[in-house]
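User: Fold this; tokens only.

Assistant: Input:
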Amino acid sequence: MNVRQQQSLFFLTLPDLQKLCAVRVTLCDGVADAETRSTQMKMCRQLLFLHQDVLASPVPGIFSQIWVVMAIPFYKAGKLNAYIEKYGAKVEAPQRVIPVILQNCLSYSLVARLAPAWNKTGHLLVQGREFLSQMGKQNAVVFDINVTETQVCLSIEAYTIRLPPPELEEFDISQSVIKDFDTHKNAVIEGHSILSNWCYVLPSMKMGQILSILHTTPPDCPFHSYRDFQKHWDDLYGYKLPEDCGNIQIYCSIYFRMIGGRVFTYPLHTSLHRCSAHV
């Protein structure tokens, strides 16, 4: 459920773009797309928190490249190159900052630096580091940044939403199957038992199809424990996944038709939300 409130517009004067430069960073070749994407996002976030006076963002549509915007004296100091070399990446020659590059870097940098106080959830930013475990109403905003040669326009709309953690019953799984799954730690709920198997997956809210539900991660999953997932989500998105408190975890294998038929693993109670008319 989304309840929309008032929209606000803010206009900011840009600094002199002639005093800034943009560089394109290219990651090393020979790495799988999924790993390259993770490295791209980790590098962006690390740059932003290591150097407060830079802006960064993935190059749209290219997993192996990053834009970094900074003051020209910062670039000449060589601090960026020293960091990039650790990843075996290459830095292209600096170029003039144009509005579209600055807009992408401002948007990504703002979202990255706001987490986990505000967390990206599709087109929303949801308030609170514990937002994944909240049952009631939560505050959220939608913001949009538009950059011209002379100014920045920031649009903010406030919402009240509900984003409760999903339960197995929501996916139209029979009680007998759920009971067996809860009783046996090696049990697996196969796809034919999941009658409502489409869901939205955080943080992008892309639609995926649940193939199976397990108590342990599949053998081909790069993460072998819940703590691995916690670190991954923190590194890439700033999400603070809830502590497991000794509970048995539940994982889902999710198929994504729109990204090459790839299958990924997600913790159920922290990153899955069933498709419905009110999401």
